[in-house]
Amino acid sequence: MTKAEIITEISSKTGIEKVDVQETVEAFFKVIKNSMVGGENVYVRGFGSFVVKKRAKKTARNISKNTAIIIPEHFVPSFKPAKTFVEKVKTGNKTTKA
Fold first, then answer.
1. 41-90 carries CATH number 4.10.520.10
2. How far is CA 50 from the centre of its chain?
């Protein structure tokens, strides 16, 4: 499902104009991004947590040149779904894609 499909579905279920729904969805994502860039985690009860994870400094190898590369410590965004959300997905009616 794409962002456009989400906007269309929310608009049809709530009766709110697509333009207003799009602005709201965009604002939601912007708030999450800005919070995570600032180092804050975002918790949505019943859905999950958007957390910033720290990756430690490590040494990697470039095998084609046979050299060592040092990757500095850095932060990456991560999503951890809530237990209730995971259970719903597990027990939901799923179709398998080939």
1. yes
2. 7
Every domain of the chain and the residues it spans = 1-39, 41-90
pLDDT band at 84 (very low <50, low <70, confident <90, very high): very high
The type of residue at 18 is K
**What's the rounded Cα separation, in Å, for the pair 2 and 33?**
18
pLDDT for 98 beyond 60: no
Q: Is 51 left (phi over 0), alpha (psi -120 to 50) or beta?
A: beta
With 0.85 as the threshold, say if the pTM is over it.
no
For the stretch 68-77, contacts whose Cβ atoms lie closer than 8 Å and that sit 24 or more positions apart, written own/partner, are 75/39, 76/52, 77/36, 77/50, 77/51, 77/52, 77/53
